[in-house]
Amino acid sequence: MKVLVAGEKPEQVITTANYAKSLNPAQVVAAAFKPFTENELAMLGGAGVEKLIHIPEKYLASGAAASAAALAELVKKLDPALVLIYASKKGVEICGRLAQRLDAAYASEAFAVEKGEKGFVAKRLVLGGGYVATVSLNSKPALASVKVSASETSQGMKPAVEEFDPGIDAPAVEVLETIKPEKTRVDLEKASLIVSVGRGFKKKEDLSLAEELAKLIGAEIGCSRPISGDLKWLEEERHIGLSGKRVRPNLYIALGISGQVQHLVGMRDSKTVIAVNIDPNAPMATESDYYFVADLYKILPLTIEILKKKLGS
Amino acid sequence: MEPIRETYILLPPGTDFLMYLVLVPFALVFVFGVVYRLRRLGVRSVGELLNSVFRGVGYMARYGLLQRKVVSEHLAGVMHLLIYTGIIALFIGTTLVFIDHDILRVLGLRLLRGDFYLGFEFVLDVMGVAFLLGLALLIYRRFIRHEPRLRNRLEYSMALAGLLFIGLSGYVLEAIRLTVEPRPWSGYSFVGKAVSTAFFVNLPTEPLTLLYRGIWWSHAIVAFAMVAVLPYSPLGHIFSTLLNIAVNAPRQLPLGKMKTPFRIDELDPSADIKLGFRSLAELGWMEKLGLDACTDCGRCEAACPAHAAGTPLSPRDIMQKLRRQLWRSDGLDEDVFASGLIDEEEVWACTTCSACIEACPVLIRPMDYILEMRRALTLEGKLDKRKTAMLTNLSRYGNPYGFDQSEKQKFFEELAEMGVQTLEEKPDAEYVYWIGCASIYDARGREIAKSVAKILLKAGVSFAVLGVEETCTGDPARRIGEEGRFQELALQNIETLKQKSVKKIIVNCPHCFNTLKKEYRDFGLELEVKHHSQVIGELLRTGRLKLTKPLSEKITLHDSCYIGRINDVFEEPRFIIQSANKDGTYVEMSRSGRKSFCCGAGGSTYWYEVRRTDRESVIRLREAVETGASILAVECPYCMQMFADAARVTGVDQSLKIKDIAEIVAESI
Amino acid sequence: MPDIVVCVKQTVDVYQLKPHPETLAPQLSQAQWKNSDFDLNAVEEAVRIKEKSGGKVVVVSVGPEVKQLLVRECLAMGADEAYILSDPSLAQADGAATAKALAAVIKTASPKWDIILCGEASLDQNAYQTGPRLAEIFNVPHVSYVNKLEVGDRVLKAWRAVEDGVEVVSCSLPAVVTVGLEINTPRLPSLLMIRAAQKKPLKELSLNDVGLTKDDLMPRAETLEVKALKTERRRQVFEGKVEELAEKLAERIIAHMGGRR
């Protein structure tokens, strides 16, 4: 079966193509608006793509309507069974319009797409992120925007590049400017690794221990309410809890957090919870996968040293 | 020669006639001023005014005449008493002179003669000294000691100058008269005599007489002028405060009770909504009178915990700002928030502790105005995220925290494990133990509830809990100004309570106590509500609860606003602590009882933030630490949370333990 | 004086949702319903535009069981009229069916609309489809993820948050705009205002009224099952010498820090 993969940026196309491999397609065609470097082309080849269709960048620049219109024309020409587009923000909005244009069965931000009894089956998160919906995509083509993480890339034979200008008009949105962020905004809700601090820390300066750990493993810093509220040691954006953020990381490391209900509500959806607390009976014990009864001032420096050796800082 | 009052001595004949002539325009200005001010306030008829005044005569006597609240602050009280009685005495003196000279003398009779007259002169001289002493104290407090709550404005200084002038010139006149025309009884006017001896005795008569006439006329004109501008000057407080006391005191609601402006179940949905006020035009004349009576004394500001914590709130400032707005030409219709007169944060910072009401010597209620302004702000609904979240949680989940049913269920299961039954399991229970949101959802609050339950079970009290049917009393909604949602919750609870024929309730939260006892009445349910301190006190007194393990700590008690000042429960918690702490000592904080300093959580402020430089809880905790106590006893789960947080943040939690009185008792059972 | 249409979806309160202990399906009947948070941001934005430039705000809500009280909350926020399409055939609606239903109602409710505002995604489905689909149906431009909006005469300017930063864009009206949570804080109308909103017109339409049939609303993408993503905690407790604990802690961290959800 033929799969068409596309994305806003070259690396996203490559990621999507790599994911498409798991479906064992007969053919994977890639479409992109931005030009690829030689290296990127090689990686695309490594993902099993033999043909890359380049749609003039002006369609992407004109906005989602134009991009979707162009892609629709390409889909009509290629007639794939499945279209996968990387779920970047622009990717998702393009997909929405594309689905409407093609009258295709569409699942957005799918984290998995598999072959189904009829057509395909996509899995996506719903209801605040705590539930998985299994959606049947039974149309030709089936459409999904995919939210998958980059996997190992390999080099392969560079695909043939074809230009495709559908010459179609669509309502335009003009980009006046793009403001780069001065400092990266904290987005705990999307973080996959979080180190969270609580009242176990006695002074603001001591948070540096947690920060060092976080930096080492690439985690974001979060906290319980007193830290950002009363003590104001961290910004309110980092507050995880009932009246703060709800997070769903892969790994949540709670340091010196007792585990009051108000806090638990914010991190309950974490995949794995590791906690360090000097109190063996803190409520956090029943809410963790791995609970270490220790003085965080003693265990953290040691752990950081070990991690430095194992991960190579 | 018989002692007799020689009015108009040293003055040319016809002076009295001229004086009265000069008086006329001043008197007219005064009358016009009074009428104008009353009209502007909105008083429509004299009859209406007099009616209201008659009803408040008793209050006027107690708080006006007898200065009951004024003297609660000692130095200020003495100062004011001296000036106040001095002025009254001098006024009575002048009146007697008028009667004596212009009425009786014409009829051939005299009053101010003989011994009576001697007494008269003596007393007046004494009162004159008192008056000047009072003014001296005033100058000391304002200009030397610079008391922080006192504001200095031009008009206050001018009033002071006028009074000083009248007081001093009075003696000077007396002195000159006694110098030029000495009399055998001059000694009774001892001050005048002394001044005369000291300054005037060797001076020639003619210039003295001229001086006398000059000072006499200026004394008269200054006096007349001060009376004429009385309605506009700070001294007008004489009337505005008396009026306020008479008109408003009798109809004031008890502390802790907010006005119920409508019943949501009786409202016509298509009717126009009016709630609270945003412009002075929306106030009735009685409320405007309350504003006008404010003398800028600042006692409310000095007592206000939110002010002490560096929030934008000063109840005095609000009253003064509104008062000045009252007299501005377009002031009545201007929106106080839109015009920038009042910053919304001022109104949100209030913890509704009622200390300002307690402090005000002339019975104004700054807090009432603040809460009515809140109602107007909430009506529009443009509240910040946290206030919105709290109200949404209340609406949707029946508790301000935003926890769903399962958390509630979990806690009641824990109580059931202790042996606590629900009303369904024990329908004949005498009391319903109403837990309250702070004790259902907060970890520390839960411990308090469990201690109370333990005590009730041990003492064999016949009680049950409502279980999951218990929802918030609605108090946070009412205090924040969202009257509709409060009533929704209240009516719901009342329905539940009525269905289950609940008559007696035990609570461990003063806010639940106040709302269930005082506010639910307006919606058709009278309940007998007891705070756990009252219940435990009763159990101890009647011997149903015995304490076998006396504590030996040093304990101090924080009087919660809604149990103490607002609901007059002071004895019981102290009795309980002292019973449990038999081998220890009890100390009072510097501000206790009615003067207790709020923990800062009340008025729904627990649920949101305002600009501040300090925290009420931290300030209060310092007071507790100063007593050297090892335990700070509290009677409210919110006070508990506030102090526990403050203790953690300031690092005091190692040396000072915060415990609810129930926990203290439970430990010594 | 723009004519604004706001699409508001009623969803379950996902924070109240508890999964069935065995099937792990969401127990929808136990949770309360509310207006989707992002859509309330849209209503607030619409009302602010009206307060600034005049115009009219029409709320449109479609679903299998649209509750009038929740729609009245939007009217209480300052919207002028509301149109509801409540039909059980929308119970399984996917993005396509929802967009179709909304478009049909909008054509009846406000045929000469200038802007359609809605939340960037719904609280329950989180699909980000409605806005783009509506724009495609009406063949107009759309701007998503907007956190600041300026509406002028026949043109709009929007600030939208994308991965690279904030894009400042402009397009002509009519257009569809989807908004994020950061754009404003929706006002919470007091209960009194909600009651006063009784006076505002609220019209319930049938499929017939808007020219739709049950078949039109069949979903293209069918949801086969919804299951909770819950994991029971392992609750392994480690006590002992701190040096040994540190080793184990490091080991656990490395073991679980990789991979994706």
Automatic annotation (TrEMBL), chain A:
GO biological process, one term: fatty acid beta-oxidation using acyl-CoA dehydrogenase
Family membership: Belongs to the ETF alpha-subunit/FixB family.
Organism phylogeny: Archaea, Nitrososphaerota, Candidatus Caldarchaeales, Candidatus Caldarchaeaceae, Candidatus Caldarchaeum
Any GO molecular function: flavin adenine dinucleotide binding
PROSITE patterns: ETF_ALPHA
Name of this protein: Electron transfer flavoprotein subunit alpha/FixB family protein
Protease found in the keyword field: no
UniProt KW keywords: Electron transport, FAD, Flavoprotein, Transport
Organism of this sequence: Caldiarchaeum subterraneum
One protein family per Pfam: ETF
Domain Electron transfer flavoprotein alpha/beta-subunit N-terminal: 3-180
SUPFAM superfamilies named among the record's database cross-references: Adenine nucleotide alpha hydrolases-like, DHS-like NAD/FAD-binding domain
SMART domains: ETF
Record bears the keyword Cell division: no
TrEMBL record, chain B:
KW Iron-sulfur (keyword) present: yes
UniProt GO MF annotations: 4 iron, 4 sulfur cluster binding; metal ion binding; oxidoreductase activity
Annotated transmembrane regions: 17-36, 75-99, 119-141, 153-173, 185-203, 215-235
4Fe-4S ferredoxin-type domain segment(s): 285-314, 338-369
Superkingdom of origin: Archaea
Stored Gene3D superfamilies: Alpha-helical ferredoxin, Transmembrane di-heme cytochromes, Chain C
Record keywords, A-Z: 4Fe-4S, Iron, Iron-sulfur, Membrane, Metal-binding, Oxidoreductase, Transmembrane, Transmembrane helix
Gene Ontology cellular-component terms listed: plasma membrane
Similarity annotation: Belongs to the HdrC family.
Protein name from the UniProt record: 4Fe-4S dicluster domain-containing protein
UniProtKB/TrEMBL annotation, chain C:
Pfam families, sorted: ETF (PF01012)
Stretches assigned to the Electron transfer flavoprotein alpha/beta-subunit N-terminal domain: 23-214
Domain of life per record: Archaea
Annotated GO MF terms: electron transfer activity
Entry's family note: Belongs to the ETF beta-subunit/FixA family.
Official protein name in the record: Electron transfer flavoprotein subunit beta/FixA family protein
